[in-house]
Write a structure and sequence with these properties.
With 219 residues, the chain is of the alpha+beta class. It has 5 helices and 9 strands. The strands form 3 sheets. A 5-stranded mixed sheet has the order 2-1-5-3-4, sandwiched between helices. Strands 6-9 form a two-stranded antiparallel ribbon. The longest helix has 15 residues. The chain binds FE2/S2 (inorganic) cluster.
């Protein structure tokens, strides 16, 4: 496979031509906030709008998960325009997220905490109205608990679940502020056919899907 040379934040990097910029940066130890991308998923969802970077020659920041690397590309992950967009997206997300890290099993491995630190942003936003939802928590499954109030709607669980023939437990339901990830007909998780592979838990970046026994997930 052809390789290309690119520069990210002044670091010269060799990458496979066409590989998405997000993965090239992460593989080379350069963090870019991201929630919805999954390396195994070839269809880019680009729903979280947190992975903005600036690419020389482009007037506007671009989502790193959507951009294939090309020879000579010069990228900045710390440009002011990109950071401003990412911070706004993060604040919007956090305006409806319950911040109860002290009682959350994902605290310490939560992607939201990592993103906040990277962006220099607060988990509790003061600039936007607090729009927390109070949806029922589903603990009907024998292995895991689903708390839709902590869901960032990244869609990772939806995609990974669909990779199992006959599974596809998760899907998006409703629109706008009412949008949730749910089962078909919004049945309780425990009542739905599930292979218990628990891959949904390993890809969840927040505390929305957690093991009942407190086991750590790997995302
Ligand atoms: S990771 Fe790029 S838009 Fe979500």
């Amino acid at each position: 496979m052809k390789t290309v040379s690119i520069t990210i934040d002044g670091n010269e990097i060799t990458a496979r031509e066409g590989e998405k910029l997000l993965w090239v940066a992460l593989d080379n130890g350069i963090y870019i906030p991201n929630l919805c991308a999954l390396r195994e998923n070839p269809e880019v969802f680009a729903g979280c709008r947190l992975c903005f970077v600036e690419v020389e020659g482009n007037n506007r920041p671009v989502a790193a998960c959507t951009v294939p690397v090309t020879e000579g590309m010069v990228v900045s992950t710390r440009g002011e325009k990109a950071l401003r967009l990412a911070r706004s997206g993060f604040e919007l997300l956090m305006s409806s997220h319950p911040v109860d890290c002290a009682h959350c099993t994902r605290s310490g491995s939560c992607e939201l905490q990592k993103i906040a630190k990277h962006l220099g942003a607060k988990l509790k936003t003061k600039r936007l109205r607090n729009l927390q939802r109070h949806l029922p928590i589903d603990d009907s499954h024998p292995l895991f608990i689903y708390n839709p109030n902590k869901c960032a709607l990244c869609g990772r669980c939806v995609w990974i679940c669909r990779q199992h023939p006959g599974a596809g437990v998760f899907g998006f339901a409703h629109r706008g502020f009412e949008r949730v990830i749910s089962t078909f007909c919004e049945e309780p998780m425990g009542a739905y056919k599930c292979e218990n592979c628990t891959e949904c838990i390993s890809v969840c970046p927040t505390g929305a899907l957690v093991f009942k026994n407190g086991e750590e997930q790997s995302a």
